[in-house]
């Protein structure tokens, strides 16, 4: 983290906003004070930021369940912020984003609207903290697409603009949650409604909504003319520390361009006036990144928080996340060549890497070319199977045309294969990197592209002797999270008609194959959330889940156990429970309210590449999230260090230990 702060200072950025969703006391448990050991860590974070010349903003998100008219809730909010202020924090933010746009009946009796309730609390807290220089407010309508009925006619934002004290800054993300571009006109419109300059919370590089993508491209689509109309700009970066070098570096270039613009008159030359060019900024960042990666790293950098932000008036927003420490064991020992030939990815490698993982609405040149060629080869593959009878004079012309088309198709197919081979070589060079922190953070994404590239290359070779119908694609511009996976996702969408190369399928296993208490019921009662992992030896892992634990327990009692008693009539009811190690656990409503879904992941110990297990678990989590789950939990013994470390790295945190659950298991949970 200190290294990160120093880097920000070197590039002219000055603010760090702390608001990680995996800090339960930031959002879900906002009323609870930090324990002594937690406060020590938070104080160290604040001091490190100040030592590097950064303003530290502490953000709290009480909106999910606060009762605005309840004086006790307001007292708890004040107490929590007073504790953080006592740790040395002087800047604060209250976030009301991503919550229901309604009031409970108690609040309806006191406040005339949702906006008035939020403003009342925000103003009171602002004054209680003695009106700090930086106090931010994130509204529930925080972008144009969320305004009802529109920005100019939003009664909610009109109230915010009129009633919120003038010293409070308002956060805004742009026209969308993830805005492709920000224009001076759109910001002026927001400024007029809010009656103050907005502070942009820029999600351009945020990747927490898609575990299969990372954004390495430059800060782009924000003209430097925005500067005079903004209170500041926070950049919400990738969750992975090492993936943020170019986003933060180019943001620094953008910020410096604003300063140069202010110093020079309009008649100055383009260079003197501070014009910002994303491509030039990217080239400079790539040069510096190449040198940075060339520095051998013995360990991962200190952890940073991921809702943190980077600014020209704020800093960097990232999610607290442990660095991978057990990844790539088998890759390092896969061959004598890898052990003996560690090397540093060069400028060409990094440029290709950035092109593959560019920006939410845009691929780099190389990725665009690959997708275009893949689509062309797929759409024109029928030409190589056209049958023309030899010797037919009436078809001589069509024969020539066919030969030309076939030659063109095969030539482009060969070129596509060579391009795919270059991507495979990139993967090989990346895993030899001496900078292990860089490798650990980016390896899962490079591995995913490698696998997709292998499939795409094999598919094109298959097209060489077969025909396939083309698939029409929708060309609608939507938020990036609608179609996930970056270039890998687009290859998959173009590959087969159902749009996915990775399809879960139900498993029917005999009880003798069961290796854990919940495996049998999960497979039989929740097959749609059953994923398996296979290698050349067969089954080597699985990820199983339940969408609704309450319904699952009822189904177990109604169908699963009666079926088992019928199958094993000699066993007593108690023996059946012991046989399957499944007991009638009573899960607290407080647990199931936030974490209604259950997950279980197992991978054989000889599968050394931990990213494989991580991808398997991610597939399950995404399946549950897409189908409506808001949170998941898992159970394990406190002595099971392997599973504890695995789930912790996936963002799970210990919720409680209780005899109400199985034996002495602990419960880990994660919000989706």
UniProtKB/TrEMBL annotation:
InterPro entries: GH (IPR017853), Glycosyl_Hydrolase_84 (IPR051822), O-GlcNAcase_cat (IPR011496)
Domain GH84: 1-259
Pfam families the record matches: NAGidase
GO biological process: glycoprotein metabolic process
The UniProt record lists the keyword Phosphoprotein: no
EC number: 3.2.1.169
Catalytic activity: 3-O-(N-acetyl-beta-D-glucosaminyl)-L-seryl-[protein] + H2O = N-acetyl-D-glucosamine + L-seryl-[protein]; 3-O-(N-acetyl-beta-D-glucosaminyl)-L-threonyl-[protein] + H2O = L-threonyl-[protein] + N-acetyl-D-glucosamine
Keyword match Zinc: no
Keywords from the named record: Glycosidase, Hydrolase
Highest taxon in the source lineage: Eukaryota
Gene3D superfamilies: 3.40.630.30, Glycosidases (3.20.20.80), STAT, domain 1 (1.20.58.240)
Top EC class, one word: hydrolase
Gene Ontology MF terms in the entry: [protein]-3-O-(N-acetyl-D-glucosaminyl)-L-serine/L-threonine O-N-acetyl-alpha-D-glucosaminase activity; beta-N-acetylglucosaminidase activity
Protein name: protein O-GlcNAcase
Highest classification ranks of the organism: Eukaryota, Metazoa, Chordata, Craniata, Vertebrata
């Amino acid at each position: 983290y200190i290294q990160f702060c120093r880097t920000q200072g070197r590039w002219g950025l000055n603010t760090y906003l702390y608001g990680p969703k995996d800090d339960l006391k930031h959002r879900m448990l906002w009323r609870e004070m930090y324990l002594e050991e937690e406060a020590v860590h938070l104080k160290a974070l604040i001091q490190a930021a100040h030592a590097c010349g950064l303003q530290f903003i502490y953000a709290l998100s009480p909106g999910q369940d606060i009762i605005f008219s309840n004086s006790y809730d307001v007292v708890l909010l004040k107490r929590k912020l007073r504790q953080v202020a006592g740790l040395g924090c002087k800047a604060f933010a209250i976030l009301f984003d991503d919550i229901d746009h309604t009031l409970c009946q108690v609040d309806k009796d006191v406040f005339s609207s949702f906006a008035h309730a939020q403003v009342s609390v925000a103003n009171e807290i602002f004054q209680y903290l003695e009106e700090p220089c930086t106090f931010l407010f994130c509204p529930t309508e925080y972008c144009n697409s969320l305004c009802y009925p529109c920005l100019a006619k939003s009664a909610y934002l009109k109230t915010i603009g009129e009633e919120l004290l003038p010293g409070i800054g308002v956060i805004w993300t742009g026209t969308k949650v993830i805005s492709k571009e920000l224009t001076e006109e759109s910001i002026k419109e927001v400024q007029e409604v809010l009656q103050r300059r907005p502070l942009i919370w820029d999600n351009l590089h945020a990747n927490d909504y898609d575990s299969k993508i990372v954004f390495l491209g430059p800060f782009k689509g924000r003209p430097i003319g925005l500067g005079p109309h903004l209170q500041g700009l926070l950049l919400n970066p990738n969750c992975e520390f090492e993936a943020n070098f170019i986003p933060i570096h180019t943001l620094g270039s953008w910020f410096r361009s604003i300063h140069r613009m202010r110093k020079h008159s309009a008649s100055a030359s383009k260079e003197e006036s501070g014009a910002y060019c994303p491509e030039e900024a990217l080239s400079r960042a790539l040069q510096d990144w190449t040198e940075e990666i060339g520095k051998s790293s013995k360990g991962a950098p200190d952890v940073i928080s991921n809702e943190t932000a980077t600014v020209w008036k704020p800093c960097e927003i990232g999610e607290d996340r442990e660095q991978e420490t057990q990844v790539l064991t088998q890759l390092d020992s896969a061959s004598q060549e890898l052990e003996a030939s560690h090397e540093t990815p060069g400028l060409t490698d990094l440029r290709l890497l950035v092109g593959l993982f560019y920006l939410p609405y845009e691929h780099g040149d190389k990725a665009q070319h690959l997708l275009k060629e893949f689509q062309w080869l797929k759409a024109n593959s029928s030409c190589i199977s056209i049958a023309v009878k030899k010797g037919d004079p009436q078809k001589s012309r069509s024969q020539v045309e066919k030969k030309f088309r076939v030659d063109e198709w095969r030539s482009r197919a060969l070129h596509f294969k060579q391009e795919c081979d270059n991507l495979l070589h990139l993967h090989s060079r990346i895993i030899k990197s001496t900078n292990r922190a860089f490798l650990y953070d980016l390896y899962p994404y490079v591995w995913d592209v490698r696998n997709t590239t292998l499939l795409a290359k094999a598919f094109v070779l298959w097209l060489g002797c077969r025909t396939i119908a083309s698939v029409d694609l929708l060309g609608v511009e939507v938020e990036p999270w609608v179609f996930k996976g970056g270039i890998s996702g687009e290859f998959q969408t173009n590959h087969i008609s159902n749009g996915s190369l990775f399809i879960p399928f139900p498993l029917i296993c005999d009880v003798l194959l069961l290796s854990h208490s919940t495996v049998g019921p999960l497979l039989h009662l929740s097959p749609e959330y059953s994923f398996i992992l296979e290698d050349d030896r067969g089954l080597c892992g699985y990820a199983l889940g339940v969408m609704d634990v309450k319904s699952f327990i009822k189904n177990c009692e109604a169908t699963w156990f009666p079926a088992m008693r019928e199958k094993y009539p000699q066993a007593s009811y108690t023996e059946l429970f012991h046989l399957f190690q499944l007991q009638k656990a009573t899960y607290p409503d407080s647990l199931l309210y936030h974490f209604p879904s259950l997950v279980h992941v197992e991978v054989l110990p000889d599968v050394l590449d931990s990213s494989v297990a991580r991808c398997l678990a991610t597939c399950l989590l995404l399946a549950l999230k897409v189908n409506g789950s808001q949170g998941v939990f898992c159970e394990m013994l406190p002595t099971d260090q392997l599973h504890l470390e695995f789930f912790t790295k996936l963002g799970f945190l210990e919720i409680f230990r209780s005899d109400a659950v199985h034996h002495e298991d602990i419960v880990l949970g994660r919000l989706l």
